[in-house]
Amino acid sequence: MKSRFEEFHPLVSFIFFVLALSLFILMIHPVFLLLGLIFILMINITYRSVEQLRQWAAFMIISSLFIFLLNPLFNERGRHVLFMFHQHRITAESLIYGGMSALSLVIIMAMFVSYNKIMTPNKLLYLFSKILPQFAVLLMLTLRFIPLMKRRLDEISSIQLSKGISVLHGALNKRVKTGLLYVQVLLTYSLEEAIQTADSMKARGYGTRVRSSYEYFKFKKRDGLALVYLLLLYLLILWGRFNGFGHLTVYPIMESWQLGTGDIRIMLFYCLFLGFPLLIELGGYIRWHILN
């Protein structure tokens, strides 16, 4: 059964995720980032994509830790020196900025998990196939590239493991050789499938004329109201951001974390924007109980 947000026009879903992505990049403040993480986790829970999120948990944690530790090692800016590491100044500002960057990366990766759940390939093709057919295919292939590579690598690993070949056991040179074998098989597998896909699309005349069959999505009144709601909130948030609200200046002097009146107002708009899918589901739940 589809959720109410999945029933909206693909343009609404696409605009929501694109604008949310830009907010996670613009609103670099610990409070805003924590709220963003909470909302994205709630969205993933609501749309039953927790299992996919769990599969990416290790990669997300390792990547975020890498960024968190990398920034203070290469950046000595800041007035508050915590300690010296091999004549290198480790400052509180560099740690805080690294932490915010790491948290922003985690939020973006978690958002793409829910994006793949909501924005199906048919929706992407519907949005762009008529005006930009090549871009539609390229965008769809790009967004599914990493999950597809991971799934193929798991298949290759399982097959090789059944033959007693593993990258987890044995001497280092043997494990490196096995890993290179995995990559070789993965690239060969991917290239062969890409050629088959291209031949199939060419045989079917993709891009030479208007598509004759696809899932049709009708733009309804509620879709227009949803777009007005999202764009209005986004413009208000954007206005606040360019006026200095919702952003923590770290360098050269770190500002106070305390939120002012303007920050709180922008934070309210921020929550209303990110909580749009949750509000839609809550409204549907309440309506269903009232009618029944």
Write the layout of secondary structure elements.
Layout: H1 10-26, H2 30-46, H3 50-55, H4 57-74, E1 81-84, E2 89-91, H5 92-118, H6 121-128, H7 133-143, H8 145-162, H9 172-203, H10 221-242, H11 261-274, H12 276-291
Helix pairs in contact: 1-5, 1-10, 2-5, 2-11, 4-5, 6-7, 8-9, 10-11, 11-12
Mind explaining what this structure looks like?
With 292 residues, the protein is an all-alpha fold. The chain has 12 helices and 2 strands. It folds into 2 domains: 1-127 and 216-292, no CATH class; 130-213, no CATH class. The chain has helices spanning 10-26, 30-46, 50-55, 57-74, 92-118, 121-128, 133-143, 145-162, 172-203, 221-242, 261-274, 276-291; strands at 81-84, 89-91. It has a two-stranded antiparallel sheet. Helix 2 runs parallel beside helix 11 and helix 4 packs antiparallel against helix 5 (92-118). The chain is flat, with a radius of gyration of 23 Å.
